[in-house]
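User: Hey, quick favor. My workstation is busy. Could you predict this chain's structure for me?
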Amino acid sequence: MRLGRGPPLGIFPMHDHRMKRRNWRSSVSLLALLTVWSGVCHADELAADAGESRNFSVPGPEAHDAEIAVSAEEADVILLDRLSVTSNADQARETGGSVTFVDHAEIEKFSYSDVGRILRQVPGVNIQEEDGFGLRPNIGIRGSGSDRSSKIAVMEDGILVAPAPYAAPAAYYTPSFGRIHQVEVSKGPAAIKYGPNTVGGAVNYFSTPVPDDGPGGTADLFMGDHGARRAHLTGGGWVRTGGAVDAGVMLETWQDRSTGFKELDSGGDTGYRISDYVGKLALRTNAAAAFRQTLELKIQYSDEVSDETYLGLSLADFAANPYRRYSASQRDEMNVEHQTYQATHLIDLGGGLDLTTTAYHTRTKRAWYKLNDVCVLSTCNIAANGNYSSLAKVLDDPAGNAAAYAILTGGASADNALRVRNNNREYQAWGIQSVLGAGFMLGETIHQLELSARYHEDEEDRFQNDDGYRMVNGTMVRTSTGSPGSQDNRIGEANAWAFFLRDTIDWGPLTLVPGVRHEIINLKQTRYAGSDPGRTAPVSVQNSRVDVWIPGMGFTYSLTESWHLVGGVHRGFVSPAPGSSADAETSVNYEGGVRYGRGSARFEAIAFFNDYTNLVGTCTASTGGGCNPGDQFDGGEVDVKGLEVTIGGDAGGLLGLGFSVPLSAVYTYTATEFGTSFASGYGPWGTVTRGDELPYVPEHQLTLNAGLAGEAWRANLTMNYAAEARSVAGQGSIPANRRIDARTILDLSAEYDVTANASLFASVENLTDKVYNVAFSPAGARPGLPRTLLGGVKLRF
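Assistant: No problem, here it is.
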């Protein structure tokens, strides 16, 4: 990893005394899975020799001698079925609740690297952009709050993938979307399967499956504007051994580069470099096995270096040149390493029973070395917070903070006038989860019962320091160096038992899906003095415990073969962070509507109402406002209500044109309202008056899609509209320095098959080159991505 412009000795110092090494937990879990596999496979071989076989009660990856062939996607679906709410678009349309499944074909239309652009196809999702590239997406669902996606459950292949989802819910990591195969978004009662956060919903990313065919691969190679270079390579397949067990392997890499579209006053790149690698090894028994099984081992590693900053622009500077970056951000750089280890095992036990077990371990190291604040005194001390002004305050009123603004834009300064923080953190998470599935009949009802237990541990380790710089002729020169841990020296820890029970009950035209989740969460925060880098004596230790039941009920009722009523109710919950004095976030959420599907035609309209007993705001460096990162604030009663509509179909088939004309629309209406008045130290709320609207939630969002597809060519156009939104809670007209203006963005893509295994691809994001401000947080106005052309080839072999 390139450490770049951060501290010269590296920004990932290793301190064995401060990070508990619990890799043995994952190793023990993996060893247990392998032991079970070895023993049962031996039984399989004996049973096969005796000519015995059992019916596979849940669909499984059929071997080459079975009657039914299973595609790669279907095989992967089966392995992850018990770990997901749905595993394909058909299941999503039939489930009791609001679930959207974005399949691989939909993702391939534009080959986006920004998950925010594909999530515009999902009703009820709020995206707060930040850097234009989607490196750090802020995802909210049904007004839950989008900052750092902290109010939703973020999953990959059915496991929690956020760095520390219990100990540090605002910590952010999102899988490189360029390598993601499919996406599931769960809302309403469907979301309680995942946890711990159920108030908004969950986003579950599906990685590329092991190809079910013989050895083969893919290569997507693109180049484009802003120095873009992208490569997505996959290779692998299943090997038929002729014995009781077949083997599969998949190797994948995603390489993404850009020099950036912003213009740094002092010169230099404003882009990023991402390298992501995934390896999978899988084993599965064939049709003759006594117990049908699949075992998959997955290893993932990614490395990101991005020249990104929290420093935006004043409104006047944004109007003059929205893509400008001030000289004071020249040292800003993010470094991230992420690792995932996962072992997943599925066994059919016969008699309608199946068991899925997954063990996982994730580790994230990240250091964002970036400008924190500015001092205008003749003598500035980086250890004295009172000497410094926040960046958001300066850019909100540059005339009233003229001296500080001059330094940000390259004016001469005193020593230590620019305080740059090394946000050096490490995260670990590990756990094991088993889901027992049972299919049976009880009278006239058909049941699919799921019983799940998960043990999870995670921790966040902050070991941060501040450095001081002065500005000399537009160049930042270091004038002091803080010792490691001197700014923030603490560990947050969590362990949790989570139990989940759900029964899908089919009773004629009615399907009921009652479920309940039980979370037992133990939280701990240990703080050390900045002068104690060896962590010999804690300054404070805070322990807390959360024990919560999260029930829910979804239903569907078939009026006809095509028309269905859907609805549900569930309890929303977000756990407090370690050391927080705030209450847990709780709500009661309702939804109801109608769904239609016939052939390619589909329609869905669902109204929702989230009744918050207590909304919680979490201060992060990205929220701005001068609060202390990690602090939480109670917001009291809040109502969020809205309507989600999806409609689509193939006009070409309807009109008999001989080629496909897919058309669709996705609309979301959201209205939010605080139920009480209060004064808050949380920047996005400020002083709240009853009736104020939540920040960063547009009232209207609309996505329109149109395409043309022949036998060897495809073209797609998508338009996304978002109404204006406010950056701080309020009501009535929105002041210019608090208003995120409405914007309409068009994206266009086209693909032509040169041969059966090779195609040419091109896309234009932001076709009209619309200039728009995406946010006033973390500090100042921030531009969305300008018009960006991308082109290349897609190879299949």
